[in-house]
Amino acid sequence: MQVRLLTAAAVLGCASLLGGGLASAQSLPGPDNRPAPGNEVPALTPRQAGYRPQVNYQLQCSGCHRVDGEGSRKNDVPRMKDFVGHFLEVEGGREFLVRVPGVSLSGFTDAQLAALMNWMLTSDIAGDSTPTDFQPYSATEVAALRAKPLEQIDATRDVLLQRMRDQQIAVRDGLEDRP
């Protein structure tokens, strides 16, 4: 009998401690909350910060396409490494690169996005896949393209990949065997 009373008292004691802690927990900032030292000025968004295109790639693209552009077959994310520039060799490919939702709907300005695309297509990510006559994107071109985001991403991409195959361009996007 005494063991049961001690066990019940222990359970009630723990419950009151937990309940008391939950009742006093604060989930929203109160009027007296202050930022931690060094955080008095709100952080800038990437759009406001004016980062280099390489940093913007890290912030916007590398989460899915990975730092080196290798993509992830497991997550159905195409490889850009040594391949993405081939889109510039087929009709509709240049437009596609800006109109995909991850690009067209990003928070970057048109100029930042143009700089990011130009950096990516002339960096180690694109490797030798970018044509030698590549014309850099302008902010004006990006603005016009991103105003019309793609709705049929996979269907459009499949058409572009078939155009590559028709031109004897090897499709090495890491998703060659997807259904």
Characteristics:
signal; Cytochrome Bc1 Complex, Chain D, domain 2
Q: Total number of β-strand segments?
A: 0
Mean pLDDT: 84
* CATH C-level class of the domain at 53-167: Mainly Alpha
Question: Which CATH architecture of the domain at 53-167?
Answer: Orthogonal Bundle
Order of helices and strands: HHHHHHHHH
- What is the helix tally? 9
CATH topology of the domain at 53-167: Cytochrome Bc1 Complex, Chain D, domain 2
Principal-axis shape:
elongated
Query: What Rg do the Cα atoms give?
Result: 26 Å
Class derived from helix and strand content: mainly alpha
Q: Which regions contain 5 or more consecutive residues with pLDDT less than 50? A: none
GO molecular function, one term: heme binding
Signal peptide: 1-25
Protein name: Cytochrome c like protein
InterPro entries: Cyt_c-like_dom_sf
